[in-house]
Amino acid sequence: GEANELMARAIFALDVYQVLHGCDLVVVNLNGRVPDEGAVSEAAMAWARGKVVIGTVKGDVHDIGKDLVGMMLEGAGFEVFDLGVDVDPQAFFDTAGEKQAQIVAMSALLTTTMPVMSQCINQFKEAGSGVRLIVGGAPINQDYAIKINADGYSSDAPGAVELAKKLVPKQ
Question: pTM for this structure?
Answer without folding.
Answer: 0.74
